[in-house]
Amino acid sequence: MFGSVIVIIYGLYLGPLVFLGFVTAGLVGLTLLVEKKFGASDRFESPDFLKRTLGQVVGFALALGLIVLLVMLAKLPFHI
Length: 80
Hints:
Helices cover about 80% and strands about 0% of the residues. It is mostly helical and about 80 residues long. Helix 1 (about 1-15) packs antiparallel against helix 2 and helix 2 packs antiparallel against helix 3.
């Protein structure tokens, strides 16, 4: 528990991109750990592990790109 708090504080200290990198690495690592420990669900047939993992990383990157775009648009001076 204390390790995650230290990583968050240290990531915020180094900057937002490093923080987002730490969060991304943590989420991907957690995904890999849960997949290996619990395996696939019996209720749904899904594509292989590599496709699911890459799909999740691409989806996270797209969501992150949208957030960065919105933050950058908020910083633009709009004169109406």
